[in-house]
Specification:
single chain, mainly beta, Elongation Factor Tu (Ef-tu), domain 3, SH3 type barrels, 2 domains, 7-stranded antiparallel sheet, 6-stranded mixed sheet, 5% helix
Length: 178
């Protein structure tokens, strides 16, 4: 399978081994993600950018990691050689999301525009709290943390490469007057 970089989803990184059968321990970029379960083919990319395709034999969750057994990787020695590799899968293997939901790779780097203050920066990160997700935006106001709730997020426009927000007073630091 020869896919271009924009056709691949970067799931995570091989960070170690598990057991004696050559299982790989993968740290997903999105904690708790089970997206690798949908992969028909796993692509491993080394530090030089070279890739090789593998057939997944077993995928399971273990603590914060995903355990991955691949066809043709049958020993600890073979698996050790893969530590540090990037774990990729085809974007076509990702499950469809419900309306209004987006994968991180689709929204990362989008411009965040407030209805009152204009462009406030680029979406750089996201983390989850018990209540909801939080967008981390960096720009002319420094770092702005935006709760991902319907009353603040007006529209995610993938074609226009922007997220339109309506933020309340006090969420963005006001410039010093004087």
């Amino acid at each position: 399978m020869t896919l271009s970089a924009n056709e691949l989803f970067n799931f995570g990184t091989v960070v170690g081994l598990h057991g004696l059968r050559g299982d790989l321990k993968v740290l997903p970029h999105e904690p708790g993600s089970d997206l690798l379960n949908h992969a028909q083919t796993i692509i491993l990319r080394d530090q030089k950018g070279l890739t090789e395709d593998y057939t997944p034999m077993k995928i399971s969750e273990h603590k914060a990691n995903t355990l991955l057994r691949l066809a043709r990787v049958e020993s600890v020695a073979q698996a050790e050689a893969l530590v540090g590799f990037t774990v990729l899968m085809s974007l076509d293997d990702l499950p469809e999301l419900s309306a209004g939901k987006h994968y991180w790779h689709e929204i990362q780097g989008l411009a965040v525009v407030d209805q009152k203050r204009g462009n406030i920066g680029l979406l750089q990160g996201m983390f989850t709290t018990p209540a909801h997700e939080i967008y981390e935006v960096n720009g002319r106001f420094g770092e702005v943390l935006i709760p991902v709730v319907s009353r603040f997020i007006v529209e995610i426009d993938l074609d226009g490469k922007r997220i339109l927000v309506d933020l309340p007073e006090g969420l963005i630091p006001e410039p010093d007057e004087g």
